[in-house]
Specification:
The protein is α+β, with helices and mostly antiparallel strands. 20% of the residues lie in helices and 34% in strands. The chain has 2 helices and 4 strands. Helix 1 (2-9) packs across helix 2 (73-82). The protein starts with a helix and ends in a 7-residue tail after the last helix.
Length: 89
């Protein structure tokens, strides 16, 4: 799966931060979960994430696919790094 491969090669800036779940709405096999960062970052805006349930598992549905449309995982990772999307390593 492209999304998994890109995030293995480009960990997010927010990796390792804790989240608080503010709300979860379930409709059929879809769920929308609203989260905020925990602790000192809690004042930042909340964000909604979508999940889908299929074959006995919940899966993440990315909101923004801009980083996953460059023709290959290597090109996707390069674009994400160039945009400052990845955590420094």
């Amino acid at each position: 799966m492209t999304w998994v491969a890109v995030h293995r090669g480009c960990p997010l800036q927010a990796a390792g931060l804790a989240y608080n779940i503010k709300d979860a709405t379930l409709t059929g096999s879809m769920a929308v979960v609203t989260v905020t960062l925990a602790g000192a970052a809690a004042s930042l805006a909340s964000e909604s994430e979508s999940l889908t349930y299929s074959a006995g598992r919940w899966g993440f549905v990315p909101n923004d696919l801009i980083y996953y449309r460059h023709g290959s995982v290597k090109a996707d990772i390069a674009a994400a790094k160039a945009a400052g999307y990845c955590a420094s390593s």
